[in-house]
């Protein structure tokens, strides 16, 4: 066919071929309905880079900011040592570990006390191994380490970087990881054109040599120079000396440097297990190298020993420090004791011991090991010196060889007396099945196996079972039975206990206590010891892997995690945690007035204790806590005072310790001591309302300078007030509103008299009144119904002389500074629902922000051009610099203070702040709870609060519990009133926002999860544990409540059927349906019949369920995981209502159903096999009818729908864009699905997502994120490359949105599209990390990019230089990749600038780049912050502040 579209495509392809960039292959696909042409561009992988270059011609610019917001808990490798500076001998050990994409330092606490995170630093490559370097005794480096420096650590990364790092002090109190030197491991390739696949580091026990081991062919010897660094002028205590490469000629199973003999300290022996590529057999290679003070050292191959034919493949080589020149060879099914002498002499008669096997007879592979006791040889090894002339090139024959061949060996092995006192070395082995073994090697040739923990079986004791051990196993020390102190060495005492650290794989870290070293029975080769898992809940190393799927719920995130049988759905919430304790259940338990509580006060009386006063529609109710029973009861004595009064304020005045009560007609002072008649004595009536007046508001303020207090009243004259609510009629001009200030005397006489008052009138009725004490001044904030904000300052003269001098009218403002903010024109329209409801002031020494809450749930932030603390307001006026508007709820907004020295006298409603520290935080109540925090940078961070597994959304207002004892400095308590039940609760709020993660156990290994938006139920698809009765993996569907973990329904699928896709589909019409669509694949076993292994699925099913409300007697109990040591939510509710999955329809498909997406209410898009098809719903017949189909060359992995367009992610071809055209309503025509755009590149796309109508985001399994633009011209077929970046770990899902309830993004962050408010894009990796992608402005991108270049240009000697980079490149690609990186800036290096550098180092980075200074000042100017510049601006200082403010703002937007 010839049409316009095909002509354009043909011209584009011809142009590409003429440029010589690639080969274009064409295929024609024909349809029986319509004949159309589809072009498929076949990749030539040799010229892959040109494929991207040819598609980067788009003029559209999209700039993005990428940051890791949830760190992975996967520990890849770790090393123990004394790496912190000023580390004394009695302190705990330190652990430097590679966790996810960071290098983290942890302090290992006392026995069984867990670990503590000290500091961390991002790395830009996958860390393979870490070893701790111990300086030789007597060297200058050891003296320096013992005095003021910690031990050095060597780090090997996947990109070939070999780095030395050290921990140093940072900002006097903290620590940071500092790069000392780095080099590359070329492995014989001097030009560095190709990297070897590296594996591990092997360290000499005396830290003389470190070896870099690859998986194939090469081992590189690096000699360490510990000479005096000060004399040589280097900043690193150790230098990398001569580097020698050894080619072994095969695959390297493992390698280790043996402990040297005491008489031969200058010799280094390395043994390697090598699979010979020519002879197809396994050899033990023994290499020798000498530490030569003069001349170049060399490496010599001493001998090669073939392993016995009946010996399985080696897995680990364990050097034994207690046995010089000997090692333990761990194979697939046994351990063997081998010496260097045997390799030299060709002796293959090793002492061997079989390892336990699995129940089915398979080998139980050893995943990790650790040597008990220190691996550092004692200083006595280095006391003597050796002459170079006494060196030998062969290993002497050991007398142990004769002992091994004695016929009485088996008898000695079974002799308990011979073994009891000769255990010299212990090695712990962790197997793949979960067993923990102890290998005890005596000085005689004897190996004793002890089953510390057997393979997990069906047991109810969760502390004695593990699903699997990780790849990291460390020996922490042995507890002295007498003193209880953990020592680094090992002991043979029967009552001693060893402590181990285990982590890695898909488990949280665990501390293991092994009790006692028992002796074997005479007739058994193995014994069983007692093991205890020391649990600490979810700690700093909580592991989320493997995170295969995740979904966003209402302000929550859920993801799959764990393996059988400890798999669970993880629930994450970010914000301030709230613990709720209900005090008074409902309004029915108090007084006769059943109306809702609209005001609450709290104070403490000397003889009674805590008291609460509730103001209701008609009466006020006083309740007090019974100090004996702890119950709240009506306080009758105080109730007599409140009878018949409309209370505006009641509380204890600190300056007089008396009870002040402000009602609608008077202000009275009462004694806090009860009389004999059980009543209070009225001391003084300060004032009474004049004729025609009524008090509407009342607060009390206290001066911090003089200590005097005053009552501030809101007064309204009711003369001429109409019967209806005033608005704009003529009667409103006759009503008068004013603020009246009355001083409270320190001493009360017997005579009552009217106190002298100061007064200021207002043109509109007062809606709220607040007082704040900041520094030496008292500020009064007044809100009116206009709406209009008035801020008044009571100066020092007014406070000291106000009782004697009359206050002038508003024409004279010499003693009262008045700042009016008109909110009716520039901010919000004037409507009755937008009346000012509450006001609060946040202030520090540099910035002041006024929070204004309206009655419609709107929050206004008014930022002043300076602080209210410095100077009096009468002398220094302030102006509004910026106004922002947010919607925090749909109820009136209230505020409550967060002050350490709060008292009830400072605020009538909640609390006012005393001093400056108390004015930086405030609680925001608008149904939901938020905490506003004024940062030192001047920005206000507003974070949501949550409790009881859900966001608190029914709170009317809160009041600080000033008399309660806070749990710690970061926890404050509040009384809260529920808007629905009127119940009063005590809330404990954590002031530090954190990401709180807990588990919902489902009893299987979860693979997929979705959240139903209408019911908020989770539907999870998991894989059941395999058993002899069920040899094939089988999936099951589970419906559970995310708030309490209660399981509502379960459904098991066919044997061998795995769920690949889950999708919710809501049908709205005369009758609504909640469909759960399930896509599966049918798998069978391999030809050898082994369970657990499977081939490609030949077929699949599409299954439709209906999520319906059901009623039954009781719900099944939630199956809890016997293996999980994390927080598990196990609900056991007996509610009679729940949900169930009702089967509706199913269809068999050719190939597995890998992806699903609904297209409106009528159509469902299905990716099955190598095709994509659209099914139409027939509601009457309850079935789906196939409409149209498009064939694909490779199976589709994901689908995402936007209007009528469908983006499809392919296994090998990137992504495609399909367009669905339904048939006409009158039945004319047919449904059509055709491909309109494509970007066929060799990227295995795991998931795709529409960011806007013309922008598509995709992630690959290799960790590459890329965005493609849809061409604006109709005839263009190829998608345009927009941006891309590497994550360094396998990605699986994209979700648009955020689990954080945020009000707005920073001004430098943009929305992806004008019609979508979800500006955050979350991307997960399999190792359990979450990354956030933000769209930012071009100015912000250029600034951050220039900052990255400036930090890299500082060089490795500077603290700003990133860790583990190749020539400063921060690309996280795991291997050399031709995929381009453009348009995205990595937020890790910019975060290092803010959090990892001192102020002087920040200035050095900014000062080194004039372009960076220019961009920072330009960004500051565009943000309208010029007023914050100094009179004589320091460009470097201002640039640092501008960069810091930008990075902190973007960091807050990325928090999840």
Write up what this structure looks like.
With 1456 residues, this protein is mainly beta. The protein contains 15 helices and 87 strands. The strands form 18 sheets. Strands 31, 32, 33, 54, 55, 56, 57, 58, 59, 60, 61 and 62 form a 12-stranded mixed beta sheet that branches. A hairpin with a 4-residue loop joins strand 38 and strand 39. The protein is globular and about 115 Å long. The N terminus is likely disordered.
Rg from alpha-carbon coordinates = 37 Å
Mean pLDDT score: 75
The low-confidence runs, each spanning 5 or more residues with pLDDT under 50, are 1-57, 382-422, 456-467, 518-527, 720-733, 797-830, 871-875, 900-917, 1088-1094, 1113-1136, 1425-1432
Helix/strand-derived category reads mainly beta
Number of helices: 15
**Quaternary structure state of the chains depicted:** single chain
Instruction: Give the percentage of residues in beta strands.
Output: 35-45%
Please summarize the sheet with the most strands.
12 strands, mixed
**Which of globular, elongated, flat, extended, rod-shaped describes the shape?**
globular
Q: What's the N-to-C terminus distance?
A: 52 Å
Number of strands: 87
Fraction of helical residues? under 10%
Outline of the structure:
With 1456 residues, the protein is mainly β. It is built from 15 helices and 87 strands.
């Amino acid at each position: 066919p010839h049409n316009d579209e095909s002509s354009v495509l043909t011209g584009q392809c011809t142009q590409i071929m003429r440029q010589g960039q690639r080969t274009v292959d064409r295929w024609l696909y024909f349809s029986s309905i319509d004949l159309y042409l589809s072009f498929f561009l076949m990749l030539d992988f040799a010229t892959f880079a040109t494929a991207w270059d040819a598609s980067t011609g788009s003029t559209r610019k999209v700039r993005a900011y990428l940051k890791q917001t949830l760190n992975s808990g996967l520990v890849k490798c770790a090393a123990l040592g004394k790496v912190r500076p000023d580390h004394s001998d009695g302190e705990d050990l330190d652990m430097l570990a590679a966790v996810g994409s960071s290098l983290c330092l942890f302090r290992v606490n006392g026995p069984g006390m867990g670990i503590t995170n000290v500091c961390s630093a991002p790395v830009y490559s996958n860390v393979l191994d870490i070893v701790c370097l111990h300086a030789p005794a007597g060297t200058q480096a050891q003296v320096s380490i013992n005095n003021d420096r910690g031990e050095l650590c060597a780090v090997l990364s996947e990109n070939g970087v070999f780095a030395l790092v050290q921990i140093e002090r940072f900002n006097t109190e903290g620590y940071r990881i500092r790069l000392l030197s780095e080099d590359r491991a070329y492995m014989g390739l001097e030009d560095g054109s190709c990297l070897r696949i590296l594996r591990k580091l092997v360290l000499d026990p005396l830290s003389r040599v470190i070896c870099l081991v690859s998986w194939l062919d090469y081992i590189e010897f690096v000699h360490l120079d510990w000479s005096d660094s000060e004399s040589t002028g280097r900043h690193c205590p150790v230098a990398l000396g001569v580097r020698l490469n050894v080619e072994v000629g095969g695959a390297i199973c493992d390698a280790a440097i043996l402990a040297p003999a005491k008489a031969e300290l200058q010799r280094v022996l390395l043994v390697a297990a090598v699979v010979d590529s020519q002879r197809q057999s396994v050899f033990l290679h023994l290499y020798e190298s000498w530490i030569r003070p003069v001349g170049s050292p060399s490496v010599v191959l001493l001998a090669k020993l073939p392993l016995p034919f009946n010996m399985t493949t080696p897995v680990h080589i364990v050097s034994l420090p207690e046995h010089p020149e000997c090692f333990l060879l761990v194979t697939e099914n046994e351990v063997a004791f081998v010496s260097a002498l045997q390799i030299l002499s060709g002796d293959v008669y090793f002492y061997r011991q079989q390892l336990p096997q699995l129940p089915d007879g398979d080998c139980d592979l050893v995943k990790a090991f650790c040597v008990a006791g220190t691996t550092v040889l004692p200083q006595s090894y280095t006391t003597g010196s050796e002459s170079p002339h006494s060196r030998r090139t062969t290993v002497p024959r050991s007398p142990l060889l004769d002992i091994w061949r004695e016929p009485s060996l088996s008898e000695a092995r079974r002799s308990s007396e011979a073994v009891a006192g000769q255990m010299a070395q212990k090695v712990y082995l962790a197997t793949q099945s979960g067993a923990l073994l102890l290998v005890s090697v005596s000085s005689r040739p004897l190996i004793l196996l002890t089953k510390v923990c057997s393979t997990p079986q069906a047991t109810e004791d969760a502390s004695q079972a593990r699903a699997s051990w990780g790849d990291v196993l460390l020996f922490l020390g042995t507890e002295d039975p007498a003193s209880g102190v953990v020592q680094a060495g090992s002991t043979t005492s029967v009552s001693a206990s060893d402590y181990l650290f285990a982590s890695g794989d898909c488990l949280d870290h665990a501390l293991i206590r092994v009790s006692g070293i028992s002796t074997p029975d005479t007739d058994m080769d193995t014994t069983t010891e007692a093991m205890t898992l020391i649990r600490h809940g979810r700690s700093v190393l909580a592991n989320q892997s493997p995170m295969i799927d995740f979904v966003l719920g209402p302000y929550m995130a859920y993801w799959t995690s764990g393996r059988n049988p400890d798999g669970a759905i993880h629930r994450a919430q970010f914000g301030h945690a709230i613990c709720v304790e209900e005090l008074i259940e409902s309004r029915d338990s108090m007084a006769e007035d059943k109306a809702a509580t609209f005001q609450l006060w709290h104070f403490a009386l000397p003889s009674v204790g805590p008291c609460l006063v509730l103001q209701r529609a008609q009466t006020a109710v006083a309740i007090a806590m019974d100090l004996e029973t702890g119950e709240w009861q009506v306080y009758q004595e105080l109730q007599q005072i409140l009878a018949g009064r409309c209370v505006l304020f009641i509380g204890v005045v600190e300056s007089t310790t008396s009870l002040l009560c402000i009602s609608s007609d008077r202000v009275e002072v009462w004694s806090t001591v009860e009389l004999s008649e059980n009543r209070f004595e009225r001391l003084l009536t300060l004032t009474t309302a004049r004729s025609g007046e009524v008090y509407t508001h009342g607060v009390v303020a206290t001066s911090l300078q003089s200590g005097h207090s005053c009552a501030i009243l809101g007064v309204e004259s009711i003369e001429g007030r109409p019967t209806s609510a005033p608005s704009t009629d003529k009667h409103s001009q006759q009503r008068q509103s004013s603020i009246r200030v009355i001083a409270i005397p320190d001493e009360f006489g017997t005579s009552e008299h009217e106190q002298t008052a100061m007064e200021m009138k207002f043109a509109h009725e007062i809606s709220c009144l607040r007082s704040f004490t900041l520094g030496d001044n008292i500020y009064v904030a007044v809100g009116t119904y206009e709406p209009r904000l008035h801020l008044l300052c009571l100066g020092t003269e007014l406070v000291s002389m106000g009782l004697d001098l009359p206050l002038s009218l508003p024409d004279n403002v010499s003693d009262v500074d008045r700042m009016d903010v008109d909110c009716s024109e520039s901010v919000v329209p004037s409507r009755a629902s937008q009346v000012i409801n509450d006001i609060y002031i946040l202030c520090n020494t540099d910035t002041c922000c006024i929070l204004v809450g309206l009655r419609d749930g709107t929050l206004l932030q008014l930022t002043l051009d300076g602080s209210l603390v410095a100077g009096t307001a009468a002398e220094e006026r302030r102006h509004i610099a910026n106004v922002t508007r947010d919607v925090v709820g749909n109820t009136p907004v209230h505020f409550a203070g967060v002050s350490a020295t709060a008292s009830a006298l400072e605020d009538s409603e909640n609390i006012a702040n005393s001093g400056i520290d108390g004015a930086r935080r405030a609680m925001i109540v608008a149904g939901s709870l938020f905490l506003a925090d004024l940062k030192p940078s001047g920005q206000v961070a507003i974070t949501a609060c949550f409790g009881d597994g859900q966001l608190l959304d029914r709170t009317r207002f809160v009041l600080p519990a000033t008399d309660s004892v806070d749990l710690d400095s970061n926890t404050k308590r509040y009384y809260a009133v529920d808007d629905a039940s009127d119940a009063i609760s005590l809330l404990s709020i954590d002031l530090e926002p954190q990401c709180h993660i807990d588990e919902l156990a489902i009893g299987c290994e979860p693979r997929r999860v979705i959240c139903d938006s209408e019911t908020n139920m989770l539907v999870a698809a998991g894989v059941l544990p395999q058993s002899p009765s069920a040899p094939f993996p089988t999936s099951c569907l589970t419906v559970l409540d995310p708030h309490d973990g209660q399981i509502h329904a379960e459904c098991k699928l066919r044997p061998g059927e795995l769920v690949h896709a889950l999708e919710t589909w809501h049908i709205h019409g005369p009758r609504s349906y909640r469909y759960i669509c399930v896509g599966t694949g049918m798998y069978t076993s391999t030809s050898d019949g082994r369970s657990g292994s499977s081939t490609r699925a030949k077929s699949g099913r599409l299954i439709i369920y209906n999520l319906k409300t059901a009623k039954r007697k009781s719900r099944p109990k939630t199956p809890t995981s016997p293996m999980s040591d994390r927080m598990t939510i196990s609900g056991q509710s007996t509610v009679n209502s729940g949900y169930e999955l009702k089967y509706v329809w199913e269809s068999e498909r050719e190939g597995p159903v890998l992806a699903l997406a609904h297209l409106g209410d009528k159509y469902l898009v299905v990716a099955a096999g190598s095709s994509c098809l659209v099914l139409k719903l027939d509601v009457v017949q309850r079935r789906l009818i196939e409409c149209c189909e498009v064939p694909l060359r490779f199976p589709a992995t994901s689908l995402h729908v936007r209007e009528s367009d469908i983006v499809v992610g392919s296994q090998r071809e990137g992504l495609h864009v399909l367009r669905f055209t339904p048939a006409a309503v009158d039945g004319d025509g047919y449904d059509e699905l055709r491909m309109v755009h494509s970007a066929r590149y060799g990227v295995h796309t795991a998931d795709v997502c529409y960011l806007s109508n013309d922008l598509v985001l995709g992630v690959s399994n290799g960790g590459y994120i890329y965005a493609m633009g849809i061409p604006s011209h109709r005839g263009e077929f190829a998608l345009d490359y927009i941006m891309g970046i590497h994550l360094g770990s396998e990605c699986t899902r994209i979700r648009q949105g955020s689990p954080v309830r945020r009000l707005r993004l920073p001004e430098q962050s943009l929305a992806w599209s004008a019609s979508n408010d979800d500006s955050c894009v979350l991307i997960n990796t399999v190792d359990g990390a979450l990354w956030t992608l933000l769209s930012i402005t071009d100015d912000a991108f250029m600034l951050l990019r220039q900052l990255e270049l400036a930090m890299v240009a500082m060089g490795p000697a500077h603290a700003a230089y990133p860790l583990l980079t190749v020539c400063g490149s921060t690309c996280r690609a795991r291997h050399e990749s031709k995929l381009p990186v453009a348009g995205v800036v990595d937020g890790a290096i910019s975060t290092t600038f803010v959090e990892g550098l001192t102020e002087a180092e920040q200035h050095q980075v900014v000062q080194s780049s004039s372009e960076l200074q220019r961009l920072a000042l330009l960004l500051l100017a565009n943000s309208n912050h010029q007023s914050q510049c100094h009179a004589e601006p320091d460009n470097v200082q201002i640039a640092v502040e501008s960069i810091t403010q930008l990075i902190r703002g973007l960091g807050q937007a990325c928090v999840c």
